[in-house]
Amino acid sequence: MPHAMLPEATLPLLAAAFPGQKIELLAPTAGGFSHPSAFLAIGGQRCVAKAAEAAPKRAGLRHEAAVLGALTGRGVAAPALVALCESAEWAVEVLAALPGEPGVACYGRAPAEQDAVLVHE
């Protein structure tokens, strides 16, 4: 199950968090710069996983997971937290994938198309 976007050391954490479920690494994510990340399917559910090794980055994932957990059920368009997996060296945050495309994908479009994607009233 090796994948360029998720370090090999994180894969046992995912396997332990989802025992008996098939975990498929599908593709790297587009955009973002802080964490190794990838699209995956866990038990048939499309997800995004972010991994962090450095202590400040692991703390950032824990903070994001806490915020996303607090937003659950409040009508905010945010991905659902599926799991936060941790070891002494790594943290892996697993989020439900949302429909659509990453915001960074719109920057190659004409300005009017960008406005249609980025501005919601």
UniProtKB/TrEMBL annotation:
Stored Pfam families: APH
Domain Aminoglycoside phosphotransferase residue range list: 28-117
Family matches, as SUPFAM superfamilies: Protein kinase-like (PK-like)
Ranges annotated as spanning the membrane: none
Signal peptide start and end residues: none
Organism classification: Bacteria, Bacillati, Chloroflexota, Chloroflexia, Chloroflexales
Superkingdom field: Bacteria
Protein name: Aminoglycoside phosphotransferase domain-containing protein
